[in-house]
Amino acid sequence: MPPIHPLLLCGGSGTRLWPLSRQSYPKQFARLTGDESLLQQAATRLAGPGFAPPVIVTGNDFRFIVTEQLAACRIAPRALLIEPEGRNTAAAVLAGALTLAADDPRALILAAPSDHVIPDDAAFRAAVQAAAPRAQAGDLITFGITPTRAETGYGWLELAKDAEPRAAEPQPLARFIEKPDAERAGAMLASGRFLWNAGIFLFTAETLIEAFRQHAPDVLAPVQAASDQAQADLGFTRLAEGPWQSVPDISIDYAIMERAPNLAVMPYGAGWSDLGGWDAVWQESGPDGAGNVTSAHATAIGCEGTFLRSESERVELVGIGLSDIVAVATSDAVLVAHRSQAQRVKEAVAALKAQGCAQATAFPLDHRPWGWFESLVMGNRFQVKRIMVKPGAALSLQSHHHRAEHWIVVEGTAQVTIDSETRLVSENESVYVPLGAVHRLENPGKLPVVLIEVQTGAYLGEDDITRYEDVYARGQGAKG
Question: Alpha-carbon torsion 367, 90, 136, 156, what sign?
């Protein structure tokens, strides 16, 4: 059997897991249920015998995070496609299929989100292999999860009358069903004729492209043009922005799967979750005998059915006498909700956005290709940051119109360029960067460099930057 090509979708924002998942660093990059991020778990699950290197589709701001996390688990992607902006799953999946079809129209593709939990990797790989012959024969295969509760947060799949819901091979599918209310979900669960829609699909490249040609030509034309006009950028492939602007914002379910006649469902019952809310994270985290889940720096006293998680070693979270409560604390935000209301977290994010709160979308810790920085204190005309620069990494050669900077190195040795002067700055030494000076900081060593930066000036926004050289080819703008 030919290898299966994983196509991992890695561009979502995951607002239902706020404050841990935010627009600047969404849930697929977080360690929610183990020592690896959800992206790393997904890539590892679909690696090894029978699988080709993955194709990743992501956004511009996440491209270096993706490569860093994949490198940490020793997975080199076949291609990393950069969407000019998110256009939902139809466009992302099609772009990946077109990339693979350029080399092999018969390429067998498994399209999957990168932010799901599937505990039994071996069982899932076996299900994919069992579904492969039908996909090779020209069917579009969707994966349906054996339901364990009357879930209202998932879409459902209705099996055809002659289908077997626990079969070990693809079955005929009657229709897709939108997220139901509680009463309908209970009836579907009781009937035994329905599965959860996992949003995971198996097909050949040519089968999917033909489906778009028949059912969604308005998606195919601009995505094809964006792929044809794509440009290489370092190790990435940038889909062309012009054609992409006219791509409809539509899911692959609506565009193709609900219209295609050559559709079958592969039942899967060995465990799955899309981690679509904190209630799902609580469930997947293995509650103790009292139904509680606690993280490091979190303590439950006399609690039942409660999820307590602190993301900061400086914040000790304590719950006393709580029942069915979710409490999540980061260094700059705290969420407290009843577990039954966990799906409403995105309403809170929308409210914070309307109030102009930075916490709605941005973390205090901002990941960059050279490392990260964390805002510690912000005043009217000053800001204090902690900055980490990875070994061998370098910030861009840059200047600022509105601020001066003072750097104090607290770990490692930095190489600092200010205008025409370049020198080494070691621990407990400092350097001043005047307003308007052209400057760069590099880490020439084998250990991380950590420094404290004090900014002073009339405007301290991240977009006050002019880049002259950048090894990461980010262009202008806050992140480039």
Answer: positive
- What pLDDT score was predicted for residue 14? 74
Q: Strand 414-418 vs strand 421-425: parallel, antiparallel, or unpaired?
A: antiparallel
Average pLDDT across the chain, whole number: 94
Q: Residue written as tokens 């964006």? A: 226
Which is it for the CA torsion 305, 309, 314, 315, positive or negative? negative
Rounded alpha-carbon distances, angstroms, from residue 355 to 4, 341, 348, 351:
46, 22, 11, 6
Percent of the chain with pLDDT strictly greater than 70: 99
The continuous run of DSSP H or E covering 130 comes out as helix 121-136
What is the distance, to the nearest Å, from the Cα of residue 83 to the centroid of all Cα atoms in its chain?
14
The two three-digit tokens of residue 357, written as one number:
């709160």
- 295-299: long-range contacts, CB 8 A cutoff, minimum separation 24: 298/327, 298/329
Mean pLDDT of 241-257: 95
Q: What is the per-residue burial (b if ≥16 Cβ within 10 Å, else e) of 199-216? A: bbbbbbbebbbbbbeebb
* 147 and 244 inside one domain: yes
Alpha-carbon distance of 225 to 204, in angstroms, equals 21
Q: Range of 169's domain?
A: 4-268
Residue type, 40: Q
Question: What tokens does 85 get?
Answer: 């902006």
Contacts of 428 (CB under 8 A, 6+ apart): 408, 409, 410
152: pLDDT strictly greater than 90: no
- Write down the pTM of the prediction: 0.88
From the list 318, 342, 348, 317, the residue with the least C-alpha distance to 330 is 317
- Looking at 268, 288, 310, the residue that finishes a domain is 268
pLDDT of 480 over the 50 cut: no
d(CA 395, CA 479): 12
Q: Return the sign of the alpha-carbon dihedral for residues 353, 367, 238, 116.
A: negative
| CATH (domain of 107) | 3.90.550.10
| Residue 428 tokens, joined | 């407990």
- Model confidence pLDDT, tens digit, residues 383-408: 999 999 999 999 999 999 999 999 99
210 with 111, same domain: the answer is yes
Contact, 277 vs 335, CB < 8 A? no
| 475 in any annotated domain | no
E-assigned strand segments in 192-314: 194-204, 231-233, 236-238, 263-268, 293-294, 298-301, 307-310
* Same-domain status, 177 and 318: no
Condensed to tens digits (0 to 9), the pLDDT of residues 9-18 reads 998 777 899 9
Task: Note whether 375 and 383 are within 8 A (CB).
Answer: yes
Mean pLDDT computed over 297-314: 96
**pLDDT tops 60 at residue 298:** yes
Task: Answer yes or no: is pLDDT of 124 > 50.
Answer: yes
pLDDT at 479: 59
